[in-house]
């Protein structure tokens, strides 16, 4: 069953635009109704027992400005993803929610090490998520909808087992395209846990030709982006909004620092998540979020939801906000989506077909 994406009217033409979601956490996108059923099955106590009230609790917690309360939201979602049944269902519904959002390619970003409390092993949780993703794709196909998805295996940067998680990603990646694993990430608290602390993991991934994105430039500043790009072989930056700390721009004029100039000149993709970034004190409004200024300067910006449940959002909603509050045009949305396809952890020929057969004709059919 397809649910209407959060924050967008059912007749909004933006829903019809073809989209890509590169920064989309699996444990940040559960349906409230599903959470209630899964919690009842395992005896987990949730803050609310009705879907609407539970969704509001997540939104209020994420917008509270209280980091402890924000992190508590994930303690509930992760708790419901500790057995095969929960993982399969969450992954399947995650795919269907992408389809309802108009997404034709998405990467499910999640940390297998956080899902072992039910007795499953690392490889088993990866297989369970893959089973759910494939079930969602099959269900979408049966309904005449196309979507392709991949797993983005994530290590928690505050833990001390990133090499084991990197080896997990390599192991599944080497199984071939059917494994579903397309790349690697590190997530968790940025301050005090720099990317370079996980250099052995990144070196192993680099040598095994596994693509890497790194959460950087969200909570921590320009130094975290510098390490991700120059030391840890990152092909993309998760968030990266604080790259603006390395530039002095006023009314489109000014000077870029060496890091910002490198990110711009090399077109290193930035996985920006406007609504989520506002919740973590990056910009006060959508209108003054760095994404618009970075777009205007030519950075390879992409539009992402981050955590659909916590931010009450979708790619369609993020696009609508950028149009209504930051003056984006349909051409701007198309350019950012082209950036996302180009940055996808997929073979070149697949990305080229997506551009030619899905994205360009899809945008031509719709007027926002």
Structure description:
It is a single chain. With 368 residues, this protein is of the alpha/beta class. It has one domain (15-25, 90-359): TIM Barrel (Alpha-Beta Barrel). It has 14 helices and 10 strands. Strands 1-2-3-4 form a 4-stranded parallel beta sheet. It is globular. It starts with 18 loop residues before the first strand and ends with a helix. The mean pLDDT is 94.
- Compute the number of structural domains: 1
CATH homology-level superfamily: Metal-dependent hydrolases
User: How many whole angstroms does the radius of gyration measure?
Assistant: 19 Å
CATH architecture: Alpha-Beta Barrel
- Give a short account of the largest sheet: 4 strands, parallel
- Strand line-up of the largest beta sheet: 1-2-3-4
Secondary-structure element order, as H and E? EHHHHEHEHEHEHEEEHEHHEHHH
- CATH-assigned fold name: TIM Barrel
Average the pLDDT over all residues and give the rounded result: 94
Keywords: Hydrolase, Metal-binding, Nucleotide metabolism, Zinc
EC number: 3.5.4.4
Cofactor: Zn(2+)
Protein name: adenosine deaminase
Keywords:
single chain; 368 residues; alpha/beta; TIM Barrel; four-stranded parallel sheet; 14 helices; 10 strands
């Amino acid at each position: 069953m397809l649910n209407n994406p959060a924050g967008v009217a059912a007749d909004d033409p933006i829903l019809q635009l073809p989209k890509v979601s590169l920064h989309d956490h699996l444990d940040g996108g559960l349906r409230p109704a599903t959470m209630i059923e899964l919690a009842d099955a395992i005896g987990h106590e949730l803050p609310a027992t009705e879907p609407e009230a539970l969704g509001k609790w997540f939104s209020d917690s994420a917008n509270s400005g209280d980091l402890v309360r924000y992190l508590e939201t994930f303690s509930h979602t992760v708790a419901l993803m500790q057995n095969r049944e929960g993982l399969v269902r969450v992954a399947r519904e995650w795919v269907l929610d992408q389809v309802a959002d108009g997404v034709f390619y998405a990467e499910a970003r999640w940390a297998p090490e956080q899902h072992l409390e039910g007795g499953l092993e690392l490889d088993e949780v990866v297989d369970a998520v893959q089973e759910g993703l494939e079930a969602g794709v099959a269900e979408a196909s049966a309904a005449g909808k196309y979507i392709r998805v991949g797993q983005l295996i994530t290590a928690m940067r505050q833990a001390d087992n990133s090499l084991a998680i990197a080896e997990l990603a390599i192991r599944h990646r080497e199984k071939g395209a059917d494994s579903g694993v397309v790349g690697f990430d590190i997530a968790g608290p940025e301050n005090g846990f720099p990317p370079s602390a996980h250099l052995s993991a990144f070196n192993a991934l680099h040598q095994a030709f596994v693509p890497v994105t790194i959460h950087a430039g969200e909570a921590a500043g320009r130094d975290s982006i510098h390490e991700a790009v120059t030391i840890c072989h990152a092909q993309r930056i998760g968030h990266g909004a604080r790259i603006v700390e390395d530039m002095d721009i006023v009314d489109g004029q000014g000077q870029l620092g060496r890091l910002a100039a490198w990110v711009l000149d090399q077109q290193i993709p930035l996985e920006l998540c406007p609504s989520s970034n506002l919740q973590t004190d990056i910009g006060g409004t959508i209108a003054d979020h760095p994404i618009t200024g970075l777009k205007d300067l030519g950075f390879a910006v992409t539009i992402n939801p981050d955590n659909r449940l916590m931010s009450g959002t979708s790619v369609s909603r993020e696009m609508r906000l950028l149009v209504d509050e930051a003056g984006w045009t349909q051409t701007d949305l198309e350019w950012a989506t082209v950036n996302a396809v180009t940055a996808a952890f997929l073979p070149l020929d697949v990305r080229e077909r997506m551009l030619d057969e899905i994205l360009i004709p899809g945008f031509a059919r719709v007027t926002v």
